[in-house]
Amino acid sequence: MDSVTSECLEKHGIVSGRSVSVVDTPGLFDTKMTQEEIMMEIAKSVYLSSPGPHAFLIVFPANMRFTEHEQQIPQVIEMMFGQEVLKYSIILFTHGDLLKKKTIEELINTNVKLRHLVQQCGNRFHVFNNEDENNREQNTDLLQKIDTMIEQNNGYYSNQMYEDAHRFRQLEKERRKREEEERKVQMEKQIQEKTERLMKEKEQRIREEMEAKQRSELERVKAERQREEEQRKQQEEKRIQAEIKRVRSELEHKVRAEMEEKMKVEYKSQTKCDPDIDEFNPELHLSASAANKNSHTGVGAIFGGAVGLFAGPVGAAAGADAGADLGAAIRKWFS
Known about the structure:
The protein is mainly alpha-helical. Helix content is about 65%, strand content about 10%.
């Protein structure tokens, strides 16, 4: 479950009469090292294999679950050693004895992701049986597959290829850094533009709300003033009507007094009476004026009107006639 190798370890030996050097590296997904430390340590394997490794062996236990980490192996290796590295790679399955009656081909074919990885390595794979360590044939078969791969590649993976890959990796790193900086600048620009746009929209919204509120307030004030103006006009109209009524009453009283005075003067002039003795009654005079319609004049008409008032509506005409006769007698007596 945990990584065993923490730094590159090189071993030499004779296999089938050939000198072989094997460099063991930390796992690509070491549990105790950072990704940067892993990459730096694995990179040493190239120089330990100078002038360059003939083959890269990607090792899996045959019974290991193929997870998301394992799917990333090709990308990680290409990032460290360049895009050509998979042409020099072979998948090596250990603990083949755990497969029991199942073959390694069946294991590969039943796992789509594992099959894709093997295909990326040119369909090159090999399996070791850990319970049959004395079986040297499995070692010889692996070396034979490596020889075939070298022949197909017209050589091995050289230090120069690694240097090119390293240089490319640095350039790629710088390119990504520039892209990241440009992305940040672009993002900052977009943030500023979006913020500015949102601020303008917010400002416009606030302005519209304030204008609507002001219009509403102006309409309210206008309506309030209109109501106040109507109330003021009503009050003014009431005051005017009251003043007119007062003036009218005064004028009526004044006209009535003048008329009464005029009638009094006329009465005295017509009767030639002593004003200190004769008492003027305007109501009698007005009634007498009505009696004059029967062509009676003078004091008799006035008394006739008075008699008509006492006699009531029915006897008004008769009273006027009688009053006329009485008036004629009185006028004769005074004359």
